[in-house]
Design goal:
The protein is mainly α and 126 residues long. It is built from 7 helices and no strands. The termini are far apart.
């Protein structure tokens, strides 16, 4: 984790927080695991001299990006089922990188040219 006192551009620190939270959200299969990871991220940020107000601001930005408009995630989602529904909704969204990759692949496929694969599974998918 990058120290807040380092000489990096300010957007790098916000990106670190957002990336750490999104990674925790993506990899935590239960609400309890996510809350544990969220607390761990907060401690690591504090240890690396991030101001409390800065951490709180970027945590709130992250949760508002997830369509949660409250001050604390734990006050909104206390039910495991709600967490899993939200997680499924967020992970099902196509990211800009995935969209660009799919567009690039689609533009390279020549629709007039027959497939020359011997793999039956590939033929079934297309």
């Amino acid at each position: 984790m990058l120290s807040f006192k380092s000489d990096h551009p300010r957007h790098a620190f916000a990106n670190i927080i957002r990336t750490a939270l999104f990674r925790a959200f993506r990899y935590s299969s239960t609400l309890q695991e996510f809350n544990h990871e969220r607390q761990y991220i907060q401690l690591i940020l504090l240890y690396n001299d991030y101001p409390v107000r800065y951490i709180r601001h970027h945590f709130l930005n992250f949760f508002s990006h997830l369509s949660i408009g409250a001050t604390y995630f734990a006050h909104i989602i206390q039910d495991e089922h709600e967490y899993l529904q939200l997680r499924h909704q967020v992970l099902a969204k196509v990211t800009p990188g995935e969209h660009a990759r799919a567009s690039r692949i689609a533009s390279q496929i020549d629709q007039n040219k027959p497939l020359t694969t011997t793999d039956s599974l590939v033929k079934l998918e297309l």
